[in-house]
Specification:
The complex is a heterodimer of chains A (about 130) and B (about 130). Chain A is mainly alpha-helical and about 130 residues long. Chain A has one domain: Four Helix Bundle (Hemerythrin (Met), subunit A). Chain A has helices at about 5-30, 35-40, 50-80, 85-105, 110-130. In chain B, about 80% of the residues lie in helices and about 0% in strands. Classes of the chains: A mainly alpha (about 130), B mainly alpha (about 130).
């Protein structure tokens, strides 16, 4: 990836993180009320089956993959590698993770899993692109 | 090293401090016999340790946004007085967020969270505007 493409990928990633946090936050406020979310949240409300629960789990899953993506982007920058596989992998990861959020929210079986798999393959492509000589 | 990268390093060290706070209080509450076991039996945290755990998890979310924002500012060569001030504001807010959560400041915690969040966004947007101009 070129320098501009790296900045673009990082901005897209930041936007994606913003959407995940925002969606989870607003869904939780809608489910349990604003007053509880502003408090210290000591008693845990049952939101597991709500949209708020799904978006919470989607956010947690996104955060599990985030360090891998950021590490690979950083490795790309430091190594100055420009293999097309890296850029393609990053684009696949970002698009699939963007689809993962509504897929989780929809509750449709397999769709979410497919998005996760595609995004992870994007990370693998990036890893191969960065690691191969 | 840009000031933003310096603050990012400090933010990661803050995460270490948050881990230590959680570790000490959780061990005091549940006992090292349980915490060092494989935790097959579910013993949830409550009170201050549970609040410190939520503060730690929340900082992971904030870092998922702050880290790419710092990388964008640094890689695009747009580090300046304003972006550095935003980074420091983020760090100050994330430090204050810990007592705000632990002592249940309402609505102080939400306001402090907002300061860190909007400082991150302001840093990112100002770098984008400067890069476009």
């Amino acid at each position: 990836m070129t320098g501009d493409q790296i900045v673009l990928a990082l901005c897209a990633f930041a936007l994606l993180a913003l959407v995940h946090v925002g969606a989870q936050s607003f869904a939780l406020k809608a489910a349990v009320g604003d007053a509880w979310t502003r408090g210290p949240r000591d008693d845990v409300p049952a939101t597991r089956a709500h949209l708020a629960g799904r978006l919470e789990r989607a956010l947690r899953n996104f955060l599990e993959t985030a360090p891998v993506f950021l590490a690979l982007v950083l490795a790309t920058h430091v190594s100055a590698r420009v293999a097309p596989l890296i850029g393609a992998g990053a684009a696949v990861y970002l698009c699939a993770r963007a689809a993962y959020l509504p897929a989780y929210a929809s509750g449709l079986p397999h769709l979410r899993t497919a998005c996760w798999l595609v995004a992870t393959l994007g990370l693998v492509a990036m890893l191969i692109g960065v690691a191969l000589p | 090293m840009t000031p933003e990268l310096f603050v990012l390093a400090l933010a990661l060290l803050l995460q270490v401090v948050q881990y230590m706070l959680l570790s000490v209080t959780a061990n005091l509450q549940l006992g090292p016999r349980y915490t060092t076991s494989p935790r097959d039996e579910h013993k949830p945290l409550s009170g201050i340790p549970a609040r410190l755990n939520r503060a730690l998890q929340n900082h992971f979310e904030a870092l998922a946004l702050f880290t790419p924002a710092v990388l964008v500012v640094t890689l695009a060569g747009q580090s300046g007085g304003f972006t550095a001030a935003c980074a420091w504001a983020y760090l100050a807010a994330r430090i204050l967020y810990i007592p705000a959560y632990a002592f249940g400041w309402v609505p102080g915690r939400s306001i402090i969270w907002g300061v860190g969040f909007f400082a991150t966004i302001a840093m990112l947007v100002s770098a984008l505007i400067a890069a476009a101009g």
